[in-house]
Every structure is written in C-alpha cells, then in structure tokens.
Amino acid sequence: MAYTIESINGCTKKLQFNFETLDLSEQVKQAVLEKRKSANLKGFRKGKAPLDMVQKMYGPQIESEALNQFVRNQFLEAIDKEKLKVVGYPKFENMKYDGKNAVEFDALVEVFPVIEMKDFSNLEFKKEELSVLDDDVDSLKKNYLESKAEMVEITDENTEITKGYFAVINFQGQKEDGERPENMKGEEHLLEIGSGQFIPGFEDGMMGMKKSEKRQVNVTFPADYHAPDLQSAKVVFDVELLEIKEKKYPELNDELVKEFGFESVEAFDKKNRESLLDQKTKASEEKLNQEIIETLVKENEFDVPQSLVEQQEEFLKNDLKNSLTQKGFNEQMMEEYFEKWGDDLKVKAIFQVRSSLILDQLAKTYNVETDNSDLDQKIEETAKSSGMKKEEIEKYYNSNEKIKSNLLYAIREEKTFKKLKENLRIS
Fold first, then answer.
1. What CA–CA distance (Å, rounded) separates 166 from 243?
2. Strand, helix or coil for residue 187
C-alpha cells in the first residue's frame, strides 16, 4: 500500500497516498452497471440502455465516482491496517489525478490521543466530615409544611426587616441618566428578604427598615446581566416598606406527618435524617470527584481532538440556550450573551473532553465495565431516593437507547472514580 503517515500533533495524523500505477477499469465497470439501472436514455427503457452508451453519456461522472470510491477504500484499509482509532470524519486534500494511471492525495484525520498518565499515588485529597444538623431537619420540615403555612402581618411598628421576613414594597429604579424605566417599578410587591430574588445588594440595602419607612437603595447590576444596557449599571431604587410579614408554620405532629406518608414524628425524623445524610454523602463524593479530576487534568497535558471539543461545545451551547430561553432571552440577547461568554464555553468543553478521555483511560486500566446488573442497581437506588416506582424508571430508560447508554456511561465513570480513590491518599 503506497502511503506514509505523518503526526501533526498528538491526535492528528496525515496519511499521504501516492499511486503511480492505477487501474480503475473494474471500478468504472461496476459504476457503469450501477448507473445503467437508473439511467433514462432516449429510445431505451430504464435500465436497458447499452453499456457503451451509458459510459459515453455519464463517463466523467462515473470516473469521478469510481475515483472517490477508490480513495475511500484506500483510506479505510490504511486506518484498519494501522489500527488508528479515528475520531470524526477525514479531510481529503491535495488531490492529484492525471486522468490515466496516477493519483496522489492526503487524508487528515483525528485520532484518540495516547495518554501516558503521570504517577498520582502520592496525590492527597481531603474528604469533608458529614453530619445532619437540627437546622437541616428544620429546613426540611418547612418544605413539607410549606403548603400549610400562613402569611401573617407583623403589627409591631418597631419591628425591623431582617432575613427570613417578607416585605410588601413599592419601588422605582432610577438610572444614572435620570431615566426611571417602567420595568424597574413595582407596587405592593411581596419580597422574601434573603432569598436573592432581586439584584444583589437590594435586599441587603433594606435591612433594618421599619413599616412605612422610605429609603434609597443603591445597587450595581451584574456585569453579565441579561439586558446589555444594564450590565454594570449603577441604579438607585426608591423603596417604600408597606408591610412586614412572616410565615407561620403549623406544629408537626403524629397526625400531620401521616399525610406525608410517615407513621409518626419519630419515623419522620429518622427517615429524613437518613435521607439528608445520603444527599450530603453524594454531594461530598461529587465534590471530591471534581477536585480529583481537576487535578488529573492539570497534571496530565495532552492534545485533544478538535472535533470532540466542537461537539461538546455545541452540546453545552444548546443546553444553555434552553436555560436562557426559560429565563426570557430572545435571539438578539442570546447572540450578545454568546459573543461575550463564548470563550468560557470553549474552555469548559475542552476540560470536559480531557476529563472524559482521562476517565476512559483509567476505566481501561482498572478493567471497569458495566452491565445490566449495574443498571438495575442504579434504577433501584433512584426509585428509593425519588419515591418513584421502579417499573416507571425502567420503562423510561428502556424506551430510549441513547438515554440508557448515557446512564451506563455515567455508571462506568462512578465505578472508575471508586477504583481511582482506592489508589489515592484521601484523609
């Protein structure tokens, strides 16, 4: 086979083909026979025209198709012989064909990089200690009792607004140029102090206000605010506090918890403490996993296939578009957003591709595989934590092969992290 291979970088190869003797007669013959089946030539029924007439009518096209097929076949044979793990599609260039018996061409192709991992056995990581506090349980109780809570006005006029209270306010914002836009105005608006619903600094600026008090609150809009004309803008809000309210929750007793599916307050407390500890454990593991993979990516530099980066970048962009659409962004706002923050998406995409390649390498090193038993176990865990029926979850994953494949991939990564942590110093 007449070709040479040149490494452009760690994941790009150039295959240079040179055939000084080339006989395309057999390929042309087969192409003529194939073309004859669909050819409509005057005086002949479809598929019955003489071969020489088909050759004469479609000669250049047939020869071009035969040459393209020859090029593809030679490329595929070469990557098979060289055992190249190709990513994406090849790029053919520098085609030279004399129309007789000589042809030259190059094929640029990306391959999965060979990753030579540095020794990581001496890397040290810390795992946070976990506990469920009474405050955690109280917060969960409030979530359960939310639908039964009542909003009550505080009548004591000496009460100062603070975190956790609800304020009924009138407000109007004024920009530096004196403009007072209608979209910065509100009347009898209910705002939970400390919720972070308003522009950063607004709720802090209201702290200590009393009923009927008026105050000016100065804020600076975030640099990445969705409206370009308000990015980093300084605005003064005139605020009038009409009322202060608080939520009153009923007492959680044995009778009430039965409505939530628990036998008693004691059972409620026990099961939810277990659930909260499980949630904290998972969050802690995810945080540790993130710290580990960030360190491994930093410690191990290698070229990554551009096509994989572009695919991941497109995935992140589409995912973010859906999120921005839900927040009310139009096409122009999205375009401005991506123009400003597009580089961040690319950096994130590169990191995710590197992470994925490293974890894949480690999975092979540790011989990590997944099968239906792993899937069943994960479905059972999901059913237990979500309260959904196992059969419903199974139906969901079995109805879509791509979703099922993604879950198996995630399980493989979990198992890889578990093996990896056995070889790291974690205190």
1. 8
2. strand
Residue of 229, 235, 228 lying closest to 176 (CA atoms):
235
**Per-residue pLDDT reduced to its tens digit, 265-321:** 999 999 999 889 988 999 999 999 999 999 999 999 999 999 999 999 999 999 999
Fold for the domain defined by 150-248: Chitinase A; domain 3 (3.10.50)
Largest CA distance in the chain: 103
Q: ∠ CA(258), CA(259), CA(260), 5° rounding?
A: 85
Q: Are 36 and 28 in contact (CB under 8 A)?
A: no
Would you say 35 and 62 are in contact if contact means Cβ atoms under 8 Å apart? yes
pTM attached to this predicted model: 0.75
Give the tens place of pLDDT for each residue, 315-368: 999 999 998 888 888 888 888 888 888 889 999 999 999 999 999 999 999 999
Tell me the DSSP string of 224-265: T-SSGGGTT-EEEEEEEEEEEEEEEPPP--HHHHGGGT-SSH
Q: How far apart are CA 413 and CA 368, in angstroms?
A: 9
Q: Output the CATH code of domain 262-426.
A: 1.10.3120.10
Give bridge partners of residue 192 from the DSSP assignment. Answer: 166
**Cβ(75)–Cβ(105) below 8 Å:** no
Q: How do 425-426 and 124-125 pair as beta strands?
A: parallel
Whole-Å CA distances, 209 to 41, 243, 363, 368 = 90, 10, 58, 60
216, two tokens? 């000016």
Encoded tokens for 148: 């039964």
Which element (helix H / strand E) includes 103?
A: strand 103-111
- Between helix 134-145 and helix 265-299 the angle, nearest 10°, is 110
Residue owning tokens 């296939």: 305
Specify whether the CB–CB gap between 173 and 184 falls below 8 A: yes
The residues spanned by each domain of the chain are 3-111, 150-248, 262-426
Q: How far is CA 246 from CA 68, 195, 197, 205, in A?
A: 75, 14, 17, 19
The domain covering 3-111 belongs, at the CATH homologous superfamily level, to Trigger factor ribosome-binding domain (3.30.70.1050)
Tokens of 21: 């003797």
Q: Which of 108, 104, 106, 62 lies closest to 89 in space, CA to CA?
A: 108
Q: How many other C-beta atoms lie within 10 A of the C-beta of residue 181?
A: 13
